[in-house]
């Protein structure tokens, strides 16, 4: 018996990375998943592998109408919706003085407004089904400031705050809302071509950056997926409005040892 038998879950940004790992684990645990992303070929390939338990829908999380379409696809293919993982996000670098208003608004649109629209789109369906779960993907950047990442840090703090406001509003209709805070996970987001802002030495990799964490290594997407599974399943039935770290000890403090 799976931990998500019969549940219907939308996962945004699940064409690759952590969202893909969540989709694979959720299906293995008995769920039906709707994968939404802007990477249509990659998303369709994941769904093809997952078979009848999965559907792909083009979903730019900034577009309210596309969220409505994702909910409609879930309802039509699988029935009542039980959960959402707001996973889609982008990483951008830039200090305050180097960040244009357009740059700032672009990351806010995806990482912050996208999470707001996702929650708003699924709440009526979850409430109609008697309750459900929402997992919002923040970051360690939602718990501590990081120089040179003004936009990303702002959006991840916003995700953490919205999670708590939504949890307070929705608890009485049976909807639990929690945030996850990954740090240092090996996905395309932190591969060398995307992290020029983090490394000065061009031969350095994401794995080098995270070598001084308490656990001494970069994390894996499946390790984040297991936390999302916990928060989507009944195993977390008394948790809402909370923040859950999966960061190899990054937030425990600087490691001088
Ligand atoms: P990733 O880049 O591999 O995956 C992100 C996914 O989001 C991609 O499939 C991408 O196409 C999708 N996406 C981007 N813009 C979108 C849009 N407008 N609409 C819909 N989908 C869109 O990165 P990942 O590491 O798997 O990131 C997943 C989440 O985890 C993100 O919210 C990210 O901020 C967060 N996170 C990642 C790390 C890490 O170390 N990798 C750490 C903390 C938080």
Brief sketch in words of this structure:
This protein has 257 residues and is of the alpha/beta class. The protein is built from seven helices and seven strands. The protein has helices at residues 17-28, 40-50, 64-78, 101-128, 150-170, 206-209, 221-232, and strands spanning 8-12, 32-37, 54-58, 83-86, 132-137, 175-182, 243-246.
Q: How would you characterize this protein structure?
A:
40% of the residues lie in helices and 15% in strands. By secondary structure, the chain is α/β, with parallel strands linked by helices. The protein has a seven-stranded parallel beta sheet with strand order 3-2-1-4-5-6-7, sandwiched between helices. Helix 3 (64-78) packs parallel to helix 4 and helix 4 packs parallel to helix 5 (150-170). The structure holds nicotinamide-adenine-dinucleotide.
Number of strands: 7
CATH H-level superfamily title: NAD(P)-binding Rossmann-like Domain
**Which word captures the global form?**
globular
Residue fraction in strands: 5-15%
Helix content: 40-55%
List descriptors.
Rossmann fold; single chain; 257 residues; 7 helices; alpha/beta; binds nicotinamide-adenine-dinucleotide; seven-stranded parallel beta sheet
């Amino acid at each position: 018996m799976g931990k998500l038998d019969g549940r219907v879950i939308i996962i945004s940004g699940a064409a690759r990375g952590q969202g893909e790992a969540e989709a694979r684990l959720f299906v293995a645990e008995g769920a039906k998943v709707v994968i939404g992303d802007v990477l249509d070929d990659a998303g369709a390939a994941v769904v093809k592998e997952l078979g009848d338990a999965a559907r792909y829908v083009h979903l730019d999380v900034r577009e309210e109408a596309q969220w409505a379409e994702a909910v409609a696809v879930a309802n039509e293919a699988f029935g009542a919706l039980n959960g959402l993982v707001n996973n889609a996000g982008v990483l951008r670098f830039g200090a305050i003085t180097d960040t244009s208003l357009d740059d700032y608004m672009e990351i806010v649109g995806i990482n912050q407004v996208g999470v707001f629209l996702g929650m708003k789109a699924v709440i009526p369906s979850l409430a109609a089904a008697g309750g459900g779960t929402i997992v919002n993907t923040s970051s360690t950047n939602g718990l501590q400031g990081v120089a040179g990442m003004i936009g990303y840090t702002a959006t991840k703090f916003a995700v953490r705050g919205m999670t708590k406001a939504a949890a307070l509003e929705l608890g009485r209709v049976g909807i639990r809302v929690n945030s996850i805070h990954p740090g240092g996970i090996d996905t395309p987001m932190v591969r060398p071509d995307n992290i020029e802002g983090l490394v000065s030495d061009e031969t350095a990799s994401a794995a080098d950056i995270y070598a001084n964490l308490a656990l001494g290594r970069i994390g894996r997407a499946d390790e984040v997926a297991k936390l999302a599974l916990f928060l989507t399943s009944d195993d977390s039935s008394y948790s809402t409005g909370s923040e859950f770290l999966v960061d190899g000890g990054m937030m425990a403090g600087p490691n001088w040892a």
